[in-house]
Amino acid sequence: MLEGGGPRFCVIGGDGAIGAALAKSLRATGSEVLASTRREVIEPLMQFSLDLRADLNNFSMPECDVLVLTASVTKLAQCRSDPETARRVNVDAQLRLAEKAARNGAFVIFLSTAQVFDGTKANVGPKEALGPRSVYGKLKAEAESKLSRLGDSVAIVRLSKVVGPHLDLFQRWRRELSRGEAIEAFEDLFLAPIAMAKVVAGVELIGYRRLGGVWHLGCSEEISYLQTGRHLACRLGADARLVVSASAAMAGIPVEERPLRVSMAPGNLETAIGVRIGDALEELDVGLGFADWARTDIYSKSDMIIPQAT
Ligand SMILES: NC(=O)c1ccc[n+]([C@@H]2O[C@H](COP(=O)([O-])OP(=O)(O)OC[C@H]3O[C@@H](n4cnc5c(N)ncnc54)[C@H](OP(=O)(O)O)[C@@H]3O)[C@@H](O)[C@H]2O)c1
Q: Which fold has domain 8-304?
């Protein structure tokens, strides 16, 4: 624990989109953060090396109050083509690290996905039955099940599509539309966008307050990539006719990786942590920088003081 009483976070996957944004935000609010990397360790006081494919039996977990598991094989096609490695990273390693941290009294946050559901029902709540169809979703569901056995010291945070400057596809669309070039967008692939800033704020608060259980940080409305492209064109003042409809099915994306329903109900998220999630277009606007979102509304200094063990 820090001198001022704030918790020390350990972020597994510090180079990933969410891990990097989370570590940056936590440091900006004065928290101490250690982050894992598979690359060269440049700042040994803030980083450590870790490859989740390795044998972790003898891995010595750095001391921390909150462990955030963000590293994962996140590409659905990669999970499909090499399920053995994906299982090692997305299930076995997560459990091993969580057990080590929980044994030392740390609170564990595991990032999961809306893909643990079967994709047939919109606005699905945190307590509804799972029915994953993609390999990625199945592995996340298995990890959830194993991690939840660790009890109240674990939070499972299911995310829908996190939108921010890290998304190469939307950055490319932005450049091409701004130059007056046409883009192709899938009409049969859906996302339920949530702005990165809200994901970061939500995960931080769940960690600060050690809120165990299952949380949904996701949008309750889905839109297609085609609608997303048209919205982007509109925001950029580009001709919406530049956004050309394409088919994910025709592009070879298997049916289990293009669910029609990907939205989630937030449950008691807003009441518990004060993060209000807007509709799909609002989340796109915040995530893509067309609208501001003031996270200061939801913070108080007391959020940063971890409860003392009794
Ligand atoms: N972003 C979303 O829309 C979204 C939605 C639902 C759920 N999630 C979940 O949220 C978490 C974070 O997602 P993200 O978008 O930040 O993913 P990301 O940008 O793809 O980052 C994944 C991170 O995992 C690391 N990683 C992969 N294999 C590893 C291994 N064998 N050993 C150590 N590190 C490894 C990667 O390291 P390298 O940089 O070295 O490759 C990378 O830093 C994931 O669990 C993901 O499933 C994300």
A: Rossmann fold (3.40.50)
